[in-house]
Design a protein that fits this description.
63% of the residues lie in helices and 0% in strands. It has a single domain, classed as 434 Repressor (Amino-terminal Domain).
Length: 68
């Protein structure tokens, strides 16, 4: 099973962003970013789209899902 939190954290760190910086870029709180990365809650689809758009990747890439 995919660990979504690890994938979200990987992409944030790859972009060299703090949780606070990313939160400001996609209009959410740092606490939400932390909860997502710690698998406490899952981001809504609208935030997944915002993250994927910001990183220039697909949602599948964002969550580490490999298409077959």
């Amino acid at each position: 099973m995919i660990n979504y939190g690890d994938e979200l954290k990987y992409h944030r760190q790859k972009a060299n962003l703090s949780q606070q910086q990313l939160a400001e870029l996609i209009n959410t709180s740092q606490q939400n970013i932390s909860r997502w990365e710690n698998n406490e809650v899952e981001p809504s689809i609208s935030f997944c789209v915002a993250l994927a758009d910001y990183y220039g990747i697909t949602i599948e890439e964002l969550i580490g899902r490999e298409l077959k």
